[in-house]
Amino acid sequence: MATGATGTNTICHITCPRCGHVETEQMPTDACVFFYDCPGCGGRLKPKAGQCCVFCSYGDVLCPPNLDSKRFAAHVIDTLSDRSQ
Fold it and tell me: For position 45, what pLDDT does the model report?
């Protein structure tokens, strides 16, 4: 399993909603990917409404920027919760 500098998994299995082709891709750790050309059918994938990138929309794991932001948000909530006790 490949990991980025923060220890986040950077390997994703992305599934084309048009043809069902599954491809293993390396995700960038510092940016979201807005377009992806399916190697199976040639269709261009775009993120679903409300999603940041094609990996979050069609992959089996969240992209590193999204996952890192969720971890950061959880950390802030935990920290604030601890302070209020």
Answer: 97
